[in-house]
């Protein structure tokens, strides 16, 4: 697994430098065939070498024939010329590799990754220091572990947003991204930007209830009208499982205690099918499911929709 990851990572690096495409499936097939054949003659597990590939690249090699020539030269060297290299300092050998690899260090790309995504930059640092102080295998493992941690964090804590209406439009968007968007009085609109699974269903429910509590406290302080409707925008939700449906049921019960109606807007085909199979649509009522947020607002808060 590590050898395959290393080979494909090296292949992509040089593919970007020389502007050609690589096929991951063919790379896997080639490595597997090579190691199966090699195992018949007690060979070590083989994979791509960053240092040797860099040396080949700096030497101007164009095709795989260079590897054949290199193998023949290495074999002849081991058989005939090895005594001549006995006293060669390791520093000389290291300088050859360093001179070839140093050109692969791209500071501009590293800075760009830092500006775009800090977690990706942490994976980059993990891979860099793992390779420098341990080995390529440890560097790749560290980078993969950090990347998996990032994915798990995104899955377990999906993005959610409070929506408001852009003036003189029927568009409802994130109030943090567009400060000019205004909230609809008596209506709280929430958007979930991820599929709802067992890993994040409880977080989504608690996040919505926390927003609702904050909204109620703000209404009491400013003596505003109480929230009567909670609209959940489901268009970004590509899928939902039984845990997610159970979380919606718990959310519905919590809202009923507060005398707030739950409304769903624009659920996708996979989501609405599962909601119907679980009979959640019967529980909430078909009249509480709408094609868009604007349709729901016009139905349950027509005066507020006219005001915004």
From TrEMBL:
Residues 177-300 form the STAS domain. It is found in: Membrane. GO terms for cellular component: membrane. Its main location: membrane. Keywords: Membrane, Transmembrane, Transmembrane helix, Transport. The keyword Secreted does not apply. InterPro entries: SLC26A/SulP_dom, SLC26A/SulP_fam, STAS_dom, STAS_dom_sf. The chain crosses the membrane at residues 28-47, 68-85, 91-114, 121-148. Coiled coil: none annotated. One of its GO terms (biological process) is transmembrane transport. It is a multi-pass membrane protein. PROSITE patterns: STAS. It holds the Pfam family Sulfate_transp. This is STAS domain-containing protein. The lineage of its organism: Eukaryota, Viridiplantae, Streptophyta, Embryophyta, Tracheophyta.
